[in-house]
Amino acid sequence: MMASGWVWLCLLLAGWTSNNSMAAKITNFTIGAVLNDDRHDTLFREAITELNSDFTLLPVNATLHSASMRLDPNPIRTALKMCNYLIAQQVYAVIVSHPVKGDLSPATISYTGGFYHIPIVGISSREAAFSDKNIHVSFLRTVAPFFHQADVWAALLRHFHFWQVMVIHSADVDGYTLLNRLQTQFQSNDDDGEQREIKFELTKEFVPELEDFSKELQEISEGQSRVYLVYANAADAAVIFRDAAKLNLTGAGHIWLVTEQALDVPGVPIGALGLQQMHASNEAAHIRDSLYLLSSALREMEGSEKDITAPPQDCNSSGAVWETGRLYFEYIKKQVLNDGLTGKIAFDDNGDRLFSEYDIVNVNRPHAKTKVGQFFYSKYQNVLKLNVNDSEIVWPGGLRQKPEGFIIPTFLKVMTIVEQPFVYARRINDPSVEACNDGEVACPWFNNTAESSTDRFYCCRGYCIDLLKELAKKNNFTYSLALSPDGQFGSLSPKNGTGKKEWNGLIGELVEDRADMIVAPLTINPERAQVIEFSKPFKYQGITILEKKQPKSSTLVSFLQPFRDTLWILVMVSVHVVALVLYLLDRFSPFGRFRLANAENTEEDALNLSSAIWFAWGVLLNSGIGEGTPRSFSARVLGMVWAGFAMIIVASYTANLAAFLVLDRPKTSLSGINDPRLRNPMENFTYATVRGSAVDMYFRRQVELSNMYRTMEGNNYPTAEEAIEAVKEGKLKAFIWDSSRLEFEAAQDCDLVTAGELFGRSGYGIGLRKGSPWTDVITLSVLDFHERGFMEDLDERWIKLGSGQQCEHDEKTPATLGLKNMAGVFILVAAGIVCGVGLIFIEIMYKRHQIRRQRRMELARHVTDKWRTMVEKRKNLRAALENQRSRLKSNGKVNDSMTATRRTVGNKMAGSNIRTANNTEENLATLMPGNMMEMQSAQYHPPDGVTGLFSANRRSKLTRGTSVDMTDPLQQQPAVVCGRPGLYVDFSV
Prior knowledge:
alpha/beta, Rossmann fold, 36 strands, elongated, transmembrane helix, membrane, glycoprotein, ion channel, receptor
């Protein structure tokens, strides 16, 4: 019970104390210091006094107080002293320093202050460990850590254009931190905005307290780079410099960049460049700048925060957390001192100083250093700038001219890939027995993935092989050639399902330093240019589409293709309109045949409508016109105009017919990359490219082609050869690839054709490692090849010569026409024959009908004439009889005369014959009075003295076949119908 009572009493006292502290405004602030000597203690107290006299830097009515102590070699005693001398006086912050030489470290001060969240400001500690906020929670520093030298190194390398370096660093926290910062700086842009990555050719680390470094330096000497970055303490740097001198790595052509720690080491190479942080050893200036930062942060915190509490007063309350200390630390990190005694001061998230300035120092002679440049803060640009006087630098070997920084190797490992016509590969079984032919180069294929050796040996030739040989000849290097292990050009792809993307193919060989150069039809694109170097293009090209030719289908009406349907209709209408107008002009013209006064047979020779149509067609079809030509001048003028029209129409038709049937070639079915069948493909229309190629990356990169990319992503082929073969077999409708290759394939195989115009224009370049010394050399060589026509010679030899002659000949040679092309014409002739035969039957039937009708008309005319004659004779006879009767009456002999007359007529008719319908003749005597006769179309042949009459007597109409009583032939009764109703046979004396 008593113990619990003491606990509650302590809590109440603590709460009372806390409430009182919150209630009362704090006006006294104590700043602690852990310095090296009494002189700096005095400077510290004087700076406190100056700040107290300047009311603009402190909170209102606030006063600063000082408290100081010394570091103890024993960390435990250092922690106890801090509790007794600093924390006991309730310090708000502690400024700490330590000798540059010696084992004393402010780490203990940082641990202790961090436990209570008391801000610790270091003015001489530069180790990377203090940047770890998990350990040094409340530590800041006004000096830059050693690993910030990487920023200056990167600026120097870019200034001197050293793009490939060797890095030697210690295997500790400082060494690894520096390496990481170097990697970040090497990948960033330079001051001009140029993004060119500085590459580590080799990185060698060592364990501190080094004794020998000869083996590692020997490996370094075998590389290409001659730029060495050394991060080591003084003792380790001395060993490195000693062994480097033994291997002649400190002479002319070598460049050494060293840290501040190694700059004063005996044996540092003459010509080495080092760094020295400005004001780093001026502790007095750092003390004043630190106090200004602390007072400024106090003033800002006091004006913004209301719940400011006093710091802890002892180290016995292990669970107490000073929240105001956390806030104070954040306010200190936000402070920016533009005109400090040590320059501009600001802090990053780790509490490390930004905007540190450095002197660039050159070791120009033993134990002598010269300042040759500066890495300084520019107020106008608000950035750190590098200024180096290159003329004052003495380089290793006593040289005044900047070394290249690398040696150009004379033996290169070259990679290529099989891609006709650029690279052809012929397999050989045993290279020791079977050698490559002239013009070929050995190009083995090494399987880097298989556990067992499955290497194959090939001999390569082609466009790129000739280019490689010419490059080697011009630039005096030797090489070994090998094929791409995975047969790919190179793309970023996930590795082993980890999600991490790595470059494969030829690009991966360069990135992983397994090759020095790529000589192949390698497309230059932004993705690849980020990881490798490219020469200037040795061939410019684009992307196009390959498809199989669609044979042109010949229809039965293919001979009608030269004209559109509307034009054919107009021609047909024009023929008949012109014929009609010709007929009318010749008919109504006073000079036509119809109007000639003295012409004989005018009606028969006149231009009728049928002859006019025949004339119009004859002129149009250029056939001979022997009859039925226009006679009038007006009609002949129209005929001449029509002849001119026909000449133009026929000539146009003939020319177009030749183009369609003779010179016409199958057209491509695709119009180009914007064809609707590519943009919105059907299920039965497939197209693809090569998986992981530059074309594949192009479609992936273009937003407007994203739909096409998703469509063909699952159809892509591993190689161009497989895709081209699929197009030939009809499995693939279209293959999208480099124009150079597809044009070559289309020239080789006349069944293939490229469609549309080029898009995605780019070029083929020679690939090299980033920072390769051969980049500029190869680029200049390629430009020289273009200028002297060597690249054109390669085009003629490998791409144009012998590749397109046959197809070009076929394109220019007229096609041989067959029955399939002209079947419609033959069918037209057959149709004409059938129509002619059909019309002849119609004509025969019509003629027969016309003959029958004509016979009836002739018979009718003949009978009519006979009837007229008989009527006249009867009239004459009656008149004679009347005269005779009159005379007889006067003489009394009338009856005897009539009887005699009838007897005479009967005797005459008894000897006459009549032809009946059955074409038989019957004597009229058999048909005399008392007999009946059926007469159908009878033809009467009366004897002399008796007249047979056909009359149109309308007294009684009889139909054909009517029997007539001919008892009294002198009675005028119709005997039979002859031919038409209304024609009758009658007999009279």
